[in-house]
Structure prediction request, 571 residues.
Amino acid sequence: MIQAESASLLYNDHGKEVWACREIDLAVKQGEFLGILGPSGSGKSSLLYLLSGLKTPTSGRVLYNGQALGTLSDDKRSELRLNAFGFIFQHPHLIGYLTASENVQAACRGKDTISETEELFESLGIGDLLHRRPHELSGGQRQRVCAARALVGGRHAIFADEPTAALDHINGLKVVDILAEHRNGGSLVMVTHDLTMLEKADRIVEIVDGSLVQMDRVP
Amino acid sequence: MLIAGIVSIINSIPLSIRTIYSYSKHYLGVTARGQQEKIDEIRDILTYNAPVDVSNVIPARVSEAEVKSIVGSWPFVFLGLSGDDMQLYLDRVTGGAPLDGRLPISGRPEAVVSRPVAKNLRLGMGGIVMGPSNKAGYSRQEVEIVGIVDSEEWVLFTSYEYHHENHFPPIDVLLAFADDPADQEEFDRWAEKAFEGSSAKVFAYHNLEEETNEMFATLYKILNVIIFLLVSVITFMMAMLMSIYLQQRVPEFGLLQAIGYSKKSLLRRVLAETLIVLAGGWVIGVLCAYGMLLIVRAKLMEPNAFMLDPLDKAAYFYSAPVPLAILAAAVLTVVLKFRKFDPVAVVERRLI
Prediction:
């Protein structure tokens, strides 16, 4: 479904060229839970951004259902992210003036997802927080709302960038479980430096200094 | 509100001039420069040579009184009219507005004023409108108000005979009325040309209009500079506030872009919000200005019969550049901000 072919990403860090990803070849299959493991600064987040179309490769390409993301316009790539992909980041970013429910629905522009949102909140154990604003939620609750936002609308792929980093271990595992269990047949690509968070992954790849060093290690 | 208020109050000055002297649009005044014997000759020219039908040419005496304005005392005409000419004058100038009281008796120190004049001078029936020590105008005797006309036109007159005996200059002014009021301006302009270079002096309303426009042209240029400076300062401040506001919303824009909102859609969203805020702000400002001007008119202007138009279109027109300039500044700020905006920097918390 998502295929990286010799995808590289070069950053310009204050005039110095830094290879965040080098010649990555990786395929994400439909419905699989792929874990991307690596230490801090290894380029795992950059790889996630390449796979999800948030960044376009400096060289090589990333295909989604055979379509090279780099050839799409900003509008088309945005549309793809909005309709087919779900995102959850390390920090539980929510829009401060919207309620938890409205934050989730903001990711489904134009679609009526109120009842789905309510069901998701129930199943994530935050059914009573629908109308709370972000400042009224704890870190764990906020990250669950972010998980609901990533899951709502039946996504083909969910990209999680260290979603447990700001949580304690137990809450982190809960968020991973939620993502794994509620993805409705969609793929889940999760980046982490904590192997214990990838217990449910179908496959784990490891990245060091921007290169995949170990492939297809099954947990 | 500030700009509309300033412009409206400044506009009240020419509005006052046009209102106070609007009586003169109903007739043409012609006098002989220091030669009373020329009056009959002038009357004949006006009566027989005019290109429009002339209904009446009446002799009057004219001297100066004073009325109050927001910029001090202004000269006002104190007419002396004889017998039936008083009623004719009222019929043509005030449209036959009802008179409370009576007309002045020939030779007696009596006067008729219209309601705005009475209000302006804070006088009522029996009040002394002119006199030996009167600030509103000198007359050898105390001139008592015996009639008040219920009209918006500003009118002040006594009998021809009283004026003749007590006021200077001792020369008639002919008041000439076109038969059809619609022809009055054509008549006025003809008379100006007809008497050009002669010893006759012509007083026509359109001269007042032109002189007022000329007089205020410089003031309006200064006003434009002031408004430009105000708009620039307000726009600069608002643009800075807008920039701060947008900076505070960078996390929101970054998040929305990361989850799939395109730059264009976010730009549209921000511009739509800005437009709503500006339009709403402008409407509220206009309503506040209107309310403030109503209060100013009721409390400060109306009691003195000073003019102020709370619905002065020019005043609100002057305030329009502010929201437009702020919108332009907002568009520029947003476009510049979005040009190299990287949502990843936001979700990674490098930009916040």
Observations:
- Chain B touches chain A through 20 residues (CB under 8 Å).
- Residues 22 and 243 of chain B are 51 Å apart (CA to CA).
- Chain B has twelve helices and ten strands.
